[in-house]
Specification:
- The chain is mainly alpha-helical.
- It folds into two domains: 107 residues, Serine Threonine Protein Phosphatase 5, Tetratricopeptide repeat; 54 residues, LysM domain (Membrane-bound Lytic Murein Transglycosylase D, Chain A).
- The chain has nine helices and two strands.
- The chain has a two-stranded antiparallel ribbon.
């Protein structure tokens, strides 16, 4: 019985060692792929040239082919955090890097940056100005409508429960993430606002101050 326990312990230790070696080899292979990745090298060159948008594009090209590239997630987190001050994607990419590299040598530094990024995002939301309602002048009587327009309205009644979108004017320091958090209570619905305003917002990461956005109601 005692010998069986010793043999079982030895087997368990060997299995754990083999698993650790396999995981280590897999991570080493992933690090080598990152080191050889041409798009990541181009992203680094773009950062050196202070071309932030190009650096983002090259990192995203890497993630399109290899969604679990730790280096691409780390670079995007740093770019969105320190250059764009767009904290929603920065938080996402920091967390993805830590998920992919739980034993990374720089884990403590990345966790510290993640915490500071979260505080900056909270401060950004708190500093956003209150939304001013858009005044709509009341009419004493509705203006007469042409007969054709009346026919169209009668043939196409409004959908039950439909409500018009709110209007928001972009203020300095705001992003789609902070606007989403203000109206929906979460930054995760930024894509809802982006999709409703594609005719006036070309880049979800760069919304011009003064742009009037339609905010769909829940």
């Amino acid at each position: 019985m005692k010998r069986s326990r010793i043999e079982a312990g030895i087997f368990a230790a060997c299995a754990a060692l083999c698993l650790a070696l396999a995981v280590g080899c897999g991570r080493a292979a992933e690090d080598r792929r990152d080191a050889r990745d041409r798009n990541l090298r181009r992203a680094q060159a773009a950062q050196d040239a202070e071309d932030v948008e190009a650096a983002i594009r090259w990192c995203e090209k890497t993630l399109a082919r290899r969604p679990d590239s730790p280096q691409a997630h780390r670079e995007l987190a740093l770019i969105y955090d320190h250059f764009k001050q767009d904290y929603v994607p920065a938080l996402y990419h920091y967390r993805r890097y830590l998920d992919l590299r739980p034993d990374a040598e720089d884990r403590a530094d990345v966790e510290d940056m993640l915490e500071k990024c979260g505080r900056a995002f909270a401060a950004q939301i708190a500093a956003a100005p209150a939304v001013q309602p858009v005044a709509v002048p009341a009419l004493a009587e509705p203006p007469p409508r042409p007969a054709a327009a009346m026919d169209v309205a009668a043939a196409s009644p409004a959908a039950p429960g439909a409500a018009p979108a709110q209007v928001h004017v972009v203020q300095p320091g705001e992003t789609l993430g902070t606007i989403s958090a203000r109206y929906y209570g979460t930054p995760a619905k930024w894509a809802v606002i982006f999709n409703a305003n594609r005719d006036r917002v070309a880049d979800a990461n760069n919304v011009r101050v003064g742009t009037r956005l339609d905010i769909p109601r829940n």
